[in-house]
Amino acid sequence: MFPTELRLALRRLLTFLRPSLPALAALIVGLWGCVAIHAVTSGGASSRHFVARQLLWVLVGLVVFAVTRAVPFDIYRRHVLWFAGVPYVALWLVLLLGIRINGMRGWFAWRGLFCQPSELCKPVFVLASVVCLVRCRRRDVEGRPGLLPVSGCALAWLVPLVLQPDFGAVLVYSMTLVVLYWCLGGRLRHLLVGLGAGVAGAALILWRHPYVRRRFIAFLDPEKYATGSGWHMLQFRRSLAAGGWFGHSWEMGSWSRAYLPLGHSDSVFANMAELVGFVGLVPFVVLILAWVVYAHSRARKCASPENAGTILGLGALVAGQGFIHLSVNLGLLPPTGITLPLVSYGGSSLVATMFAFGMLESAWLDECEATGPEGQAKGM
Amino acid sequence: MVLFAFVLWFLLIVGCMAQFMVVRGSREMSAMTRESVVYRKIPALRGRLLDRDGRPLAWSVRRVRLLWDRPAGVDSAQATGEEIRAALPWLVLTPAIEPAPEGEMPAPVVLARDLSWQQVREVKAARLRGLRIEGYVERSHAPGPPEALGRLGIIRWEDGRSFGMSGLEREHDALLAGQPGLYRVVTDKHGRWVPETWRVIQPMRPGYDVHVSLARGR
């Protein structure tokens, strides 16, 4: 059994040498991210440090993509407890052993290396949720996932994130779970119950965390709180305005550098807007949409609900995170710390995204192999 | 359904981008300019006072000094101070860093005067945040007895322009003074310069040299 899988893995690894659309797109976007990080950190002593590290992570990400793509999807499916369990334990351990940055206890730090479990957990969260929902669906008389498994998934993954607190990740995980539940045949009334619970949870968070409350109030009228909680939102707007049509970089793109907080990570889209302008940004937003279309078209062709769910879930996870980042930078959502996949500075986010890409491709290859020689030709 | 939701989200995002980057761009830009761009004078280089043999009696020298817009917190100022010390070992930093008044930014600290071009290059190469190089003009005199210096007179600086207050400096002020220039620079949220944004709007016009009937002593 195992040698067969090993042979399959080796054959898939060789296929990585052939052009792979997601890997190529990821490489281009990753390099673009390095340029954006350089632009916002140049002038400081640590610019080279940021760019060199990000370049290194892009290369590591490509290797992670190749390996995760080569692993047969059946292995992920059968060993889901291990794949999801280890990062999940890390998600709880970080509450005890992690370090606090910007008020959030979400990183392990060791000799200058930082690791954020909430980022690394994202692809395995999709895998675990799909497996859980599909297996529970089989037991359900109507063949639909029930409220209990989806609530269990939501509680299990969201509670440690709320405790950190990482509200950006909570948003991404919740959105992905909603997409998964809906696509696997979930009921509308259950989603409405979930929405109600989400609103109640948000109200509780607003009540418990005064800084979140201040940010939310400032989100409704940023100019009124221009020197306080609305500052960040105003700087988003101004960095966007500085970009104009073609990125006529106002005073050499200095607004992001001088005013925009976290221009290399949580505000990287506004930073890019100043550099390349509206015309330069639209292709990037189209690329994010193209990723969902790509995942959606592949998921529709899948016969296995686990493959379809994983492919669509991972597509929605990456694209949804991208759109949430853009929405925060455009003032459509209250400011929250969320990275732009492949572009924002950070190894955990980049590696997790490439892991998601690899797992998506693995699920598609599995589907192609299951449909026989015709499918194999299509997938390889 | 999922795809439809993402397409709607995409359209909303592109619409918002167009609104902020194109439609409302000029309004935001004028607010940005109002709040962050400062215009300052470039001091005019005062002309020389020359003796009857054409030897300089009083002249202006443009020098550069190193200023440090230090962080408000004492701890972060000390940490940055250590970075500066490590990068520019020839600098003498005062060991104690005074805390800034509550709610105010600390005044810039003059770290060094009359920097050499080698030192300027080193400062630029270090690319440390908070350090900036600023030009200033100093009036020098030929050595001589106090009464001769009294004849030459004194000047004062105001708004980038020098004014002769007494003696020959006052007598020939219209010729000596020159015309200050103008520059603009973007400041960050703490009011500190963003060095790359410095632009000359109007160049400075130096003053004329004036020959006087005095003789410079040997």
Shape of chain B: elongated
Q: Using DSSP, what is the number of strands of chain B?
A: 10
How many E strands of chain A? 3
Distance between the termini of chain A: 22 Å
Overall mean confidence score, pLDDT of chain A = 84
Number of helices of chain A: 16
Largest sheet of chain A: 3 strands, antiparallel
* Strand percent estimate of chain A: under 5%
| Spatial strand arrangement across the major sheet of chain A | 1-2-3
Distance between the termini of chain B: 95 Å
Helix share, percent of chain A? over 70%
Plain-language structure description:
The complex is a heterodimer of chains A (380) and B (218). Chain A is mainly α. Chain A has one domain. Chain A contains 16 helices and three strands. In chain A, strand 1 (99-101) and strand 2 form a beta hairpin. Chain A is globular. Chain B is elongated. Chain B has seven helices and ten strands. The model of chain B has no long low-confidence stretch (mean pLDDT 83). Helix content of chain B is 34%, strand content 26%. In chain B, the strands form three sheets. In chain B, strands 2, 3, 4, 5 and 10 form a five-stranded mixed beta sheet that branches. In chain B, strands 1-8-9 form a three-stranded antiparallel beta sheet. With 218 residues, chain B is of the alpha+beta class. The A-B interface holds A 43-45, 47, 179, 182-183, 231, 237-238, 240-245, 250-252, 254-255, 257-259, 273, 277-278, 281-282, 285-286, 288-289, 292-293, 296, 312, 316, 319-320, 323, 326-327, 330-332 and B 1-3, 6-7, 9-10, 12-14, 16-18, 20-22, 24-29, 31-32, 36, 83, 87, 126-129, 186-189, 194-197.
